[in-house]
Specification:
Largest sheet of chain A: 7 strands, mixed
Largest sheet of chain B: 6 strands, mixed
Strand content of chain B: over 45%
Distance between the termini of chain B: 41 Å
Radius of gyration of chain B: 13 Å
Shape of chain B: globular
Number of helices of chain B: 0
Strand content of chain A: over 45%
Number of strands of chain A: 11
Number of helices of chain A: 0
Mean pLDDT of chain B: 92
Helix content of chain B: under 10%
Distance between the termini of chain A: 37 Å
Low-confidence stretches of chain A: none
Helix content of chain A: under 10%
Mean pLDDT of chain A: 92
Order of helices and strands of chain B: EEEEEEEEEEEE
Low-confidence stretches of chain B: none
Structural class of chain B: mainly beta
Largest interface: A-B, 30 and 26 residues
Oligomer: heterodimer
Order of helices and strands of chain A: EEEEEEEEEEE
Radius of gyration of chain A: 14 Å
């Protein structure tokens, strides 16, 4: 069974540009969530999508957006990039059941490393 | 509000020694608790999770964790550390409001021969 796939793995962008990151969840999983990891702020929740609907959103500016397609694949977009957006962006995939459901296991991808120069 | 504290930023242990990584959480309801490990340049791998029931949870790679409600703690332990255990360890509490984690700041583990 293939794991969570994130593309691209590494990318460099210039301030002011925009970027789109992609996440393909595990087959059959309907929930995709995104996290930003930086040395200063640690792991912070961006948003979660379930069946093409944003179900939960973290405390990030509107420059950060996402969407989910009917095949559960998800993209996140960051517009008007700032230096502080340099981070590892992690995608997590799950069945979408509530957190406490014993059968619900959440898997992370290897992440997309974004460097803004 | 939910939060997780990992008091130890960095820990060094000798190979073969025992290990305990501390985690304290703040959560209003029954917590869903997790430990993840991250190797350099990699994503997060689930070590173990606690939802309910037996407070001592067994995970992969010989790790275990004990949930102590009275202390709001979920410490990770391993009786004998291997050099390959060197990594960053994250404790997390999960929210029922969507599949959202609140992560601690992580503990970096160095294993010396």
């Amino acid at each position: 069974k293939a794991g969570v796939t994130q593309t691209p793995r590494y990318l460099i962008k210039t301030r002011g540009q925009q970027v789109t990151l992609s996440c393909s969840p595990i087959s059959g999983h309907r929930s995709v969530s995104w996290y930003q990891q930086t040395p200063g702020q640690g792991l912070q929740f961006l948003f979660e999508y379930f069946s093409e609907t944003q179900r939960n959103k973290g405390n990030f500016p509107g420059r950060f957006s996402g969407r989910q397609f009917s095949n559960s694949r998800s993209e996140m977009n960051v517009s008007t990039l700032e230096l502080g957006d340099s981070a590892l962006y992690l995608c997590a995939s799950s069945s979408g059941f509530r957190m406490g459901y014993s059968g619900n296991t959440i898997y992370f991808g290897e992440g997309s490393w974004l460097t803004v120069v | 509000a939910q939060s997780v504290t990992q008091p130890d930023i960095h820990i060094t242990v000798s190979e073969g020694a025992s290990l305990e990584l501390r985690c304290n959480y703040s959560y209003g309801a029954t917590p869903y608790l997790f430990w993840y490990v991250q190797s350099p340049g990699q994503g997060l791998q689930l070590l173990l999770k606690y939802f309910s029931g037996d407070t001592l949870v067994q995970g992969i790679k010989g790790f275990e964790a004990e949930f102590k409600r009275s202390q709001s703690s979920f410490n990770l332990r391993k009786p004998s550390v291997h050099w390959s255990d060197a990594a960053e360890y994250f404790c997390a509490v999960g929210s029922n409001t969507g599949n959202q984690f609140y992560f601690g700041t992580g503990t970096s583990l160095t294993v010396i021969p």
